[in-house]
Amino acid sequence: MRYAETGYNLEIDLTRGNIERAETDPKLTELHLGGLGTNAKILWDRVPPETEPFSPENLLIFGSGLLGATPATGANRTIVTTYSPQTLLMGYSMMGGFFAPELKYAGYDKVVFRGKSPDLVYLWIHNDKVEIRDAAHLKGKGAVETAELIKKELKDPNVQVAAIGLAGENRVYTASIEQGRSSASRLGVGAVMGDKRVKAIAVRGTKDINLARPAEYVELCNEVLKYIKYRNENPVPNVMTILQGLGSPQEMLHTDEKWHTENFMWGNARTRRKDFWNGEVEKKWKETQEMVRTRLISCYNCPMKCGAIISVPGISTYMMKCFSKLTYAMAAFVDDLDFGFRIAQRATEYGVDGFSTPQIMAFAFELREAGILTEADFEGCPSDNEGKFYWLLDRIVRREGIGDVLANGTYWAAQKIGKGAEAYAHNNIKKHEQLPLKLGMLNPVYFLMYATGEKANITQIEGQFPQAPFMTKEEREGFIRDWIQVPDEKFKQYVMDWEPRGERSNPYYPTVDMSVDIVDWQEMMHYIDDAVGVCAGLSSFPLKPPYHIHNYPKLISAAAGIEMDEEKLKEVYRRNRNLVRAVNVRRGLRRADEKPPEDHWKKRFPELEEKLLDAYYAFKGWNNDGIPTKETLHKLNLDTIAEDLEQRGIIKNG
Ligand code: SF4
Fold first, then answer.
1. Cα–Cα distance measured from residue 372 to residue 447, given in angstroms and rounded to the nearest whole number
2. CA–CA distance, 419 with 273 (Å, rounded to integer)
3. Which one of 213, 521, 553, 640 has the minimum C-beta count within 10 Å?
4. How many whole angstroms from 116 Cα to the centroid of ligand 1?
5. What's the CA gap between 475 and 495, in Å, rounded?
6. Which of 465, 448, 481, 473 is nearest to 545 (CA)?
7. pLDDT digit string (tens) for 114-146?
8. What distance, in Å, lies between the first and last C-alpha atoms of the chain?
9. Rounded to an integer, what distance in angstroms lies between the CA atom of residue 425 and that of residue 427?
10. In 3-state terms, what secondary structure has residue 556?
11. Cβ 304 under 6 angstroms from ligand 1
């Protein structure tokens, strides 16, 4: 019997219209757990590295995690994996909500799409009954609208639907997959879904998940829940509001946006408005948010309520989460912040990433001001800031005129436009738009995360360790007192010795070796979450979370019956980290690609940055170009990967 996982994947060949229920190998679960780990393994095994993202050979994988759908709080992530059209590397984007649990209740751990459908279709999974259905009537429909229409068609409001909007259909590189209470937005996973002509996946499941030791597991889950309650009642003091609690940043709950509006950049990620937030703005914003926020909502089996149903008078209802309430308004430079709530409704229906898309539009208007794009490119564009943004969003999503070029994101658009446009695409890492944040002094930990992260999204790599030093000794002592999550006591000393100024401050403290340790811990927790399918908001993202390296092995053992301890779990993490690296190395990723945006920090330290990268690679057992060595891969049971890299001449002489 298989525990925690179902032991079956759904293999869908879209070219032939073939559907197969394929049993999976339990040995792979022991090696990689599930989720991101087994998704990456499938991509490595089955998609040759030369494959273009929009080729029928590319796969699009919707994977649940090993603990998904079990009683563990927040075990609801869907990990969507494919080769990204934007970065050309492996893209993996996560969504919460209810999709992955429903898929497991239907009896499947993953849905793996290959080929391309000749016509627009949707997949309907109802336990053992699986059908590829015609979706011609859904062509051009919004992502939220599509979900509603499918539920009506299937006459079941409990069906979970993941759908693309027009952006996905038109293969816009920032196209998302929307799922009612969440979305997989980054790296163009929606564009690959559109390329495969899959408008949506609808799933309904009513089966059970087996647990190896149910009583023990439920007790462990109850401890997690008890801790969540404790942490909610005892926020972490002396850190900014959004870091005090658990969950995805509680943006829909909080209305104090002084920090974001005054510290994040406006326009094309360039301009800081230090005095923006005042009493009048605060009052109006609070009123607006409370008026449009119909109610706060959670993902499957979670009490945290990170999202909200948004109803702006005159336009249809949608779900919002996190910082995207401000990204459009700040990119458009409008003082009336409620614009964000209005345009986000259209953007959600179109199905686009709320981080990259506003930056792409701001980039275009900067190019127009600089004379690099001409008035002919903007024929018919209104003159007011709001109108301009709606107009350009429509062009991008429809790939009309200049919108067709911009639909590929700032990196590729700049390459195509030329005439110096490259300098305006200044906020990218690995060809992908980052948070619009520009800072003063280099932070060595963040340097490494930005440079080497393969999720290509900083907010999904950081966590666990404070972002900045505490001001006083008392604050530091208070912080480390109940810090049970540390994998090693040395991290407490790092916090104690870290000063806001002087010798023990950024950029030389944390030291190079300490920075590598901190990054490795943060990565470890994200990789474990992404394999077991637990929300980062309860584990790798916040300070002092309920899931950590000390209780995860017990949870995994009791749920899946896999003998697991901390050392073994750390090895699984290292294996998955190296596997993802190998997939990308085989696609051409090298040290030269591992750099944050030039202007992310004003004060840069090229020599120190090289030392940080050297130390990080050495720590990981990689060569100086960021490529795992044969010895490292051998230690992690990844010999076949080493052989492949050797045959291709990527690993030389071991
Ligand atoms: S913490 Fe928030 S984002 Fe995470 S599962 Fe719970 S409600 Fe969803």
1. 32
2. 29
3. 640
4. 33
5. 10
6. 465
7. 999 999 999 999 999 999 999 999 999 999 999
8. 40
9. 6
10. helix
11. yes
Q: Are 195 and 54 in contact (CB under 8 A)?
A: yes
Band of the pLDDT at 460, cuts 50, 70, 90? low
Given the structure tokens 């901190």, which residue do they identify? 518
Is 43 within 8 Å of 61 (Cβ atoms)? yes
Predicted confidence (pLDDT) per residue in 374-411, tens digit? 999 999 999 999 999 999 999 999 999 999 999 999 99
pTM exceeds 0.90: yes
- The position carrying tokens 């001449």 is 649
Tokens of 37: 């780990």
CA distances from 37 to 150, 173, 212, 533, 550 (A): 31, 24, 21, 10, 20
Instruction: Mention every residue, 6+ apart, whose C-beta is less than 8 A from residue 508.
Output: 444, 608
Pocket test for ligand 1, best of 324, 532, 535 (most atoms within 8 A of CB): 535
Atom of ligand 1 nearest to the CA of 307: 7
Main-chain phi, psi angles of 222, to 5 degrees: -65, -35
Q: Are 310 and 317 in contact (CB under 8 A)?
A: yes
Q: What is the distance between the alpha carbons of residues 278 and 335, in angstroms, rounded to a whole number? A: 12
How far apart, in Å, are the Cα atoms of 117 and each of 13, 134, 268, 360?
8, 10, 38, 30
In this structure, the residue with its CA closest to atom 5 of ligand 1 is 74
